[in-house]
Amino acid sequence: QLQLVESGGGLVQPWGSLSLSCAASGFTGYYYAIGWFRQAPGKERYGFSCISSSGGSTNYADSVKGRFTISRDNAKNTVYLKMNNLKPEDTAVYYCARRASLFSACVLDRYEYGDWGQGTQVTVSS
Predict the structure, then answer these.
(1) Which is deepest, 11, 66, 110, 125, by most CB within 10 Å?
(2) How far, in Å, CA of 117 to CA of 126, rounded?
């Protein structure tokens, strides 16, 4: 059974750091690009980071570039997101998702992703 499970969310102070994990099961992780998305209350879900199936290329939205780092460990079927210098506007539910096509590069278009985790809440507040 295909499953993506996010973990690591929580409450952090502004300028703090947090690390998220996306553990995949039920499929061969390194066949697929993985994306991170977030959705704040009243706003649409959008992609802000992704990593290709091989891990050789990554992509970031301008809003997180230089602060967030995505990586993957294919031996553990897990994708990681290290978030530094967090801001209140980073508050959202964070989701990971699997791109539908095999051996693909990563894109930030949510409609390219077909399988989603349940999400983890990240709250940045003092």
Answers:
(1) 110
(2) 28
> What is the rounded distance in angstroms from the CA atom of residue 104 to the CA atom of residue 120?
25
| pLDDT tens for each residue of 70-125 | 999 989 999 999 999 999 999 999 999 999 888 888 999 999 999 999 999 999 99
The amino acid at 72: R
User: Alpha carbon of 108 to those of 3, 37, 50, 74, 122: distances in Å?
Assistant: 20, 8, 7, 21, 20
The DSSP H or E segment spanning 44 is: none
Find the largest Cα–Cα distance for the chain: 42
In the chain the beta strands, taken as DSSP E runs, fall at 3-7, 10-12, 18-25, 32-39, 46-51, 58-60, 68-73, 78-83, 92-102, 113-116, 120-124
For 49, the token pair is 């980071």
Q: How confident is the model over 18-54, as pLDDT tens digits?
A: 999 999 988 877 789 999 999 999 999 999 999 998 8
